Amino acid sequence: MLFRSVVKYNNLTTEAEKQKAFDLHMKAFSDYKVSPYSPFERTPIHETVTGVDWKGGFFDSKEKHSGKYAYMVVDKSYTENTEASLRNLQPVQGGKAHNLQWWAKSKDADQPFVIGVECYDKNDSLIWFENRYEEFRASNEWKSYSLPLGNLTPETASIMIRLYPSKRTAIGEGHGTVWFDDFVLSTTDKGEAAKAWTQGDNGVASSDNSDTSNKETSENLLACGGFEVDVNKIDIQLDFTDFNKAAKKYFDGYGFNGHRLQLKGLGGGTYFSSEGGVFEGFAQGTEEYDRLMERYLKQIEANLVATGMIGKEYIYWFDEPNESNYPFIYETHKMLKKHAPKLTTFLTEHIAGQDISDVTDISCTIWHKLDHEKAKKMHEKGQEYWSYLCCWPKSPWISEFIDHDAVNFRMWIWASYVHHLKGILIWESTYWNSPEASPIGKLQNPWQEAMSWVTGYGWVQGKQTVWGNGDGRMFYPENRDVNNDKQVYNNEAVPSIRLETLRDGIEDYEYMMKLEQLIQEAPKSKASQVAKAKKLLSIPKSIYTDEQTYNKDPQAILQYRKKLAEAILSLQKYIGLSFNKQAISLLYHKED
User: Which long-range contacts (CB under 8 A, 24 or more apart) does 416-419 make?
Assistant: First the structure.
């Protein structure tokens, strides 16, 4: 999230501190005429879902022990424990002995997995040291398992069941795929059953109590244990109250003109890796997924239309695909257009020869790989073509680096006007540290170390590879010892000089758009002034030639801007129009 670096570097802990810092950064974005990716980070759309009792896994209709579905849980992370669990606490009878049984199978033979049962009191507070966590081994065939819970304490009012498809450790390095089905939670006849249990040789946890009189009751207390769910009974209720209130503030008050619309259920990824969408446990490509996404998307679209925000959103869910990713992206964009045709689909691209503009409203291409023919076609169809800068390109191209020409950001906007590009994008604004490059537990001080180091994409911890000086740093934290100074800092955001230059370019663009407006409104009797103004809007090659050939003399730009201003004044006195800001779409983002 955009705000994560700010919280970490400024030592913010309370919600009040975080809210103040967030407000200061939103105001700074507004002051510099740019729209952040996530103005709704602290005021999201709230969601209530009923009719699904489990979360974190997949309902699988092909691989099951019985009934219509089994529940597949997949752990692909080497740094955290992936889990599935009940959505709500399961009521139980405190003071009685309980037993949990189920069936499971795994993708790989001899796969470790963990079942966890936590005890909660009547206030839904966790009872410490009353957990039952056990490790089991699954095979490629369905097998039955049991976890005797023993005598629950009298204070226990409910339990939570958690499923882990691998070892559960402090680091979370395990991985695997396990299917679960037919959970049965029952009580035993004898209330004094022992609490202790051991791991049996057959992979089944069993009670140490050898008294065979502890027979289970036939009633299954866990009504959702079979993972049977009726998609027709799944209800999705969205609450837009906070979202709409914030939208009025940011769009009407702060002047933002775009935001990255976060949608539930979409997959995502990059050229490095990707994953398909999942909505409440149903995977993309299933009938259930499509029906649930339809209910969800129609509510999103209807709210944006009703509030007048439609068109300000862009659905940026996949970044820089390879050629092999395009069929998946096309399928997802087609689904979005099917259920919510007014929503704006968006894609960053860098592979030549790809065009899915029939389902993609905005194509955003890295600066040194612009496809001018594609941009022209999209412009003629009323679609938008944008450009972006990141760790590429390098000189002589327009770039975002500290040690390159300061005029770059200003000329980026002039070039966007020349090429009819409707927006620009920078991947980050507060990228101050790479967890891979910095020593473990340490933060980089961007005031002392200008280099932005590579992070993510499977990079080895400790490996330091350059992205570029200042890459992704439009704002800065307080200049101090970030690793030892634990004081809370919550002052106004510190802007970069490049951000100042970017705002100059945006204001230049506003002049051009204002002059376009006046040309259209000018009376026919002022044809000579109109002709001169039109000529000015054909930016000469002495100012800008192409993506890597442009004037680097600030005085030349200022002199040309003065001519634009004089033309505006010349025409405006005949029309009497006020100056209305018309800023280019500008976006910043922090990768998660």
Answer: 416/387, 416/509, 416/584, 417/509, 417/512, 417/539, 418/539, 418/544, 419/370, 419/372, 419/375, 419/385
Amino acid at residue number 185: L
Q: Is 148 part of any domain?
A: yes
Q: What is the mean pLDDT of residues 191-220?
A: 45
Question: How far from 323 is each of 34, 35, 280, 306, 342, CA to CA, in Å?
Answer: 31, 30, 29, 37, 27
552: containing domain: 502-588
Average confidence score pLDDT of the chain: 91
Which of 212, 228, 244 marks a domain boundary? 228
How far is residue 574's CA from residue 566's CA, in Å, rounded to a whole number?
A: 13
CB contact at 8 A, 518 and 568: yes
Q: What is the DSSP letter of 490?
A: -
- Span between the terminal Cα atoms of the chain, in Å: 5
Residue 287 lies in a domain: no
Contact status, residue 412 vs residue 505, Cβ threshold 8 Å: yes
Q: What's the alpha-carbon Rg for the chain, to the nearest Å?
A: 29
Phi, psi (rounded to 5 degrees) for 325: -80, -15
Residue 244 lies in a domain: no
Residue of 215 and 479 predicted with greater confidence: 479
Query: How many whole angstroms separate alpha carbon 188 and alpha carbon 195?
Result: 13
Q: Is this structure's pTM higher than 0.70?
A: yes
